[in-house]
Amino acid sequence: MSKAVITVVGKDTVGIIAKVCTYLANNQVNILDISQTIMQDYFTMMMVVDVHASLKEFKTLSEELTQIGEEIGVVVNLQREEIFDRMHRI
Amino acid sequence: MINIHEVMETNEMIQKANLDVRTITMGISLLNCTGQTLEEVSQRIYDKITRSAQNLVSVGKEIELQYGIPIVNKRISVTPISLVGGGVCKTPEDFVTLAKTLDRAAKTVGVNFIGGYSALVNKGMTPADECLIRSIPKALSETDVVCSSVNVGSTKTGINMDAVKLIGEMIREAAELTKESDSCACTKFVVFCNAPDDNPFMAGAFHGVTEADRVIHVGVSGPGVVKAALEEVRGANFEILCETIKKTAFKITRVGQLVAQEASKRLDVPFGIIDLSLAPTPAVGDSVGEILEEIGLEYAGAPGTTAALALLNDQVKKGGVMASSYVGGLSGAFIPVSEDQRMIDAAAAGALTLEKLEAMTCVCSVGLDMIAIPGDTKATTISGIIADEMALGMVNQKTTAVRIIPVIGKKEGESAEFGGLLGHAPIMHVNPYSCDAFINRGGRIPAPIHSFRN
């Protein structure tokens, strides 16, 4: 397992989750957990995914997700999970 | 599992509060780069640096991308060159050749600074040490990315006043050689008391002789993150204030620890230390001056500043040591004037003086840093300022440093422009009274009584 976190922040619109999920499914990235909320009027979504079987390299996934975000008008980031774990867990 | 609020908190620190890893610095020992001739030594130095650090920049970029945390600088520190070149360098000019080699090697691997054009002379100078010190003005004015430092004192040995005198003269000479660019050579030189062997920050980084062949040190930063956290506890008492700083420092340092471990693993170079300094940049929201204001001062330099800085420095250390078992380097708050917009403003407003900065250095992690003074300041006066700062370090058993720039052709109240991360600085008032007779005595100041612990 190689966990990563995808965050999506921006104005809420139809099909955000669908687009991101379709992309992940096409690339063999398994979704482990999804949560979403509204923070300071912004749609905020977080996905924990497993990228170990991904058909593409981490760098390519990251760039293509950013591009999908730009198309829908939201900010999408892909980061490895450890940075959050280290900061918030002892 | 990690929750959405924690994820967003981390990302807001990065995106809104300028959280970054300030530097990954690879320390490289050059002690095995010996040879019969200057050319031979120079070639071995070049080969070892370019071989050891060939992947440093690309690995830094890879980590940056995968974790989404900016890694601002990738740098190299090397064994003090006075030790490496001592056998073959007979003149200051010979040492300049090695400075140019370092410059070339650093540019080949793509790092933005290389430190270690240094000498350790806290008790006495060898002929090689003296040659290196005399070569510093030329070396710094004829290279771009080489940084130089000299350790002139320690709690154990006292202060080498001959070196302090010589360095005052060299700083003036370096300033003259680069007078067209506001004496910028002096921004790449720092003089130390109790210099640490494992500091990843420039201009004072060098790879100490007690270190391994190669090692990775990481400097974390994040004054903006501390400032943002303190905005949430405005008006609260000192207990809450301290707790907030400590928790924030912990979080910042954990990120540094992760980056350091990853860099170490991917480069196959042992991990050394995390330096958990709050290092400001001229960017708004990345300022130690702003933190001091948030703690409750109108300007940095107002009465109460030393106490505020003392608690800030202490809480940063307390949070940091919990987050990493190997904390080293300078670790604390930096108070450079030119690199911190609110410190610049405070100096320009007259709130922050050289004397107040000197007091602040008793409780911060370094010393008088990036301070511009009038171009006609005498060499002995510069040596006097250095001697005062070294004495604070020696007696208080801490690192102190001076990075001071006599800006040739400019007077008090004018401004010097250094560009980029180095920023700009108002030229500060210097006490006009002479210390010539004191500096010209020669010899060394003995170690203080509390250094005799054996």
The residue ranges of chain A in which pLDDT falls below 50 over 5 or more consecutive positions are: none
Total number of strands of chain B? 13
Number of structurally distinct domains of chain A: 1
Q: What is the C-alpha radius of gyration of chain A, as a whole number of Å? A: 13 Å
Named at the architecture level, the CATH assignment of the largest domain in chain B is: Alpha-Beta Barrel
Distance between the termini of chain B: 51 Å
Oligomer: heterodimer
The shape of chain A, in one word, is globular
Please report the first level of CATH classification, the CATH class of the largest domain in chain B. Alpha Beta
CATH architecture of chain A: 2-Layer Sandwich
Strand order of the largest sheet of chain A: 2-3-1-4
Largest sheet of chain B: 11 strands, mixed
What is the averaged pLDDT score of chain B? Answer: 95
Helix segment tally of chain A: 3
Strand content of chain B: 15-25%
Biggest interface found? A-B, 28 and 21 residues
Structural class, from helix and strand content of chain B?
alpha/beta
Helix/sheet category of chain A: alpha+beta
CATH topology of the largest domain in chain B: Anaerobic Ribonucleotide-triphosphate Reductase Large Chain
Order of helices and strands of chain B: HEHHEHHEHEEHEEHHEHHHHEHEEEHE
Let me know the CATH homologous superfamily of chain A: ACT domain
Task: Describe the protein's architecture and organization.
- The complex is a heterodimer of chains A (90) and B (454).
- Chain A is 37% helix and 38% strand.
- Chain A is globular.
- The mean pLDDT of chain A is 93.
- A four-stranded antiparallel sheet of chain A has the order 2-3-1-4, with helices on both faces.
- In chain A, helix 1 (16-26) runs antiparallel to helix 2 (58-72).
- Chain A has helices at residues 16-26, 58-72, 82-88; strands at residues 3-10, 30-39, 42-50, 74-80.
- Chain B has two domains: 21-193, Alpha-Beta Barrel (Anaerobic Ribonucleotide-triphosphate Reductase Large Chain); 222-258 and 276-451, Alpha-Beta Barrel (Anaerobic Ribonucleotide-triphosphate Reductase Large Chain), CATH 3.20.70.20.
- Chain B has helices spanning 4-15, 38-52, 56-67, 81-85, 92-109, 127-141, 161-177, 223-231, 238-267, 288-295, 305-323, 341-348, 354-360, 379-396, 436-439; strands at residues 21-28, 71-78, 113-120, 146-154, 158-160, 189-193, 214-220, 271-275, 368-374, 400-407, 415-417, 424-426, 444-445.
